[in-house]
Structure formats: structure tokens, C-alpha cells
Prior knowledge:
The protein has 14 helices and twelve strands. It has helices at about 5-20, 30-40, 55-65, 80-90, 105-110, 130-140, 195-205, 205-210, 230-265, 285-295, 315, 330, 345-350, 365-375, and strands spanning about 45-50, 70-75, 90-95, 115-120, 145-150, 155-160, 160, 170-175, 185-190, 280-285, 300, 355. It is globular and about 60 Å long.
Amino acid sequence: xxxxxFREWLAVGRxxxxxxxxxxxxxxxxxxxxxxxxxxxxxxxxxxAVSSGTAALIAALQACGVGPGDEVLVPAYTWMASAGAVLxxxxxxxxxxxxxxxxxxAKDFAAKITPRSRAVIPVHMLNRPCDMDRILPIAQEHGLxxxxxxxxxxxxRYNGRVLGTLGDIGTFSFNQHKNMTCGEGGAVLxxxxxxxxxxxxxxxxxxxxxQANTLDTNEIFLGNNFRISEIQGAILRVQLRKLQGxxxxxxxxxxxxxxxxxxxxxxxxxxxGNGPTASLVLTFDAEGEAIQFAERRGARRLFDSSKHVYTExxxxxxxxxxxxxxxxxxxxxxxxGPGPESCPKTIDLLKRxxxxxxxxxxxxxxxxxxxxxxxx
Length: 376
């Protein structure tokens, strides 16, 4: 997880001393500056800071006009919020298998598109890019919005481009366990002026009126309150300046560990895209091998990661919403929804796969020592 230090402490102190903690009190504060800097880093026209990765997904879905009666294709291996956000806007998630990279299977994605399909959420899990070269043309052919979930891949590149900027709109998370953090937070990224206007309203029901930065008043609609504070904005500005260095350390460590493990005969799961990867996954031939390997320090079996596995999404599998009158599945003409057997290929891969911590904050000599023990 990303760490906070003295520079973040100083940045927060300056905000507190200034006396303005709410971002809407004045323009040009820490949040505004962070958004401009994040858009510059990512290479897109607009970035919007929000309260969490889940809030970013909800705002992105609302920006794209997804709602009751619609279907959104979502991988079966992702944090539950990727599918939960779809239900929160009244649509239903359609589960798609993952491929051997542990990301959305483009072939299964194409096979599960229906006349009700409105969008797809490729999730770049574990800093591993989806096969965007195949996903984007399929989505375009069928008129689907591409909402990238890069919450677990902040700052990671795919063929030279920052994940979250390849589709129509993208999302980041700044949860404590992500590549950069302010405890809880997120962001929406896009180069589409209409989508960012709608996302701004989705994240604050009054922002379009308060700051008059919604260019098209037709995009002013009832939103929610997903704002972050100036304290979070100040922390994120410092974290953003540290991000590329952190990713570079991840890349070096993963490259070294993957080389050592591969030379010792371990089955490295290859990622999509060109160049080095910031993620290391082993996929064994048998589940027992993965269970045994997961006992080693620094390794974990992916099937054991609770709410990242769709079979653990109890409220979704039981179709339990806050009120019985909220029935997205019925609205979409799909009253049964997903079940435990929806994606058997995904379950098989997760049972046989282990992820290894890239340890970016651990000195390289220690990482080499731990890698030798892993590869033994």
C-alpha cells in the first residue's frame, strides 16, 4: 500500500492553517490543482476527484446515461463495487469470464452482448491491463460505452497510455491499499466535455449551480454528494508526485522476481500489452499447487480474496437491494441475475493462481532474498 510521510503532513497543515476545508468555498484550491495535475499526468482533458473508487464508478455510469433496463458487462473477478455500482444506478451487471491474464476475456465479452447492453467495465485488476486492443473495437461495433475501472492500476500504462484514459471514461481509487492514497478517495477521468459535465453533477447535486463550471445546463440533474475535502486534495497532490517513482520500483522488483521464478520453472501468468509489468501472478496446473505456494511469505491465492471473487457477492447473487421495490433485474427483463455457476473458467483460474507482492517499499536486497525463498 502507498505510504504517507512528512510532505503530506506539511501539505495538510497548510490547508488547515488556511481555514478552508470544503473544496466548493473557493476556486483554485488543493482539489482544483490536484485535478489539473492528475489530468496532465494521465494525458486526458479532464479529471474529477471524488470520495471513493465506488463513487467514481457511479458517477461515470451516470455520466454515460446508464440506468434502469440496461445491462453492463463486468468481469467475474473484481472488487464487488464494480458490479454494485451498476445496480446503484438501476442497471444490472452481466458477468464475463476472465482470461489467463486474470482480466476481462474479450471473447466471452463479445458473446454476452445483448440488445440491452449499454456499457462494459474492463477492470485492470492487480495492476494488470485488460486486452484493450480487442475490447475497444468490440465495444465500438456494438455502440457500448467503455468505462475503465483502473482502481487497482492507478498510473499503470498499456502500450504507452495511462490506464483509465483509453475508453470513454475511466475511474481511479485512492483507498489506502492502492498505488496512491488519501485514505479513501477516487477520480473520474475523460477527454469528453459532456461526460465530465455530467460526472460533475453526479458527484455533487449543486456544483453546476455553485461554481457555474457545467458548460451545458442540460447536463444539470439531481446528483449525489461524492465530494472530497481540501485536506484530501492536498494529500493527493503530494502522492501524485511520488506515484511514478513508486511504479518504477514495482516494475524493477517484479521484473527481477519474475525472472528468478521463471528460471526455476514457475508458471508466470503473462499480462496484456508491451513492456514490463507491475504485477506478478503464477498460475499452476493444479489447485493444490497454488494452495501450497500461497503458504510462502509474500504470496496469496487469488481465490481466497473474498469480495473480489463473484461467488462471494452475496447481496448480488441473492438480488438483495435496500428496498424490495428496487428491482433492477426485473427492469432489465432478467429476474434471475447471476448465479454461483455463471463463470466456471474464472473460478478455475482463481483457484490455481497466486499473486506475489511487488514490495515497492522494501529495499531491493531484501526483495532479492525473499524472491530466492519464493523460487526455492
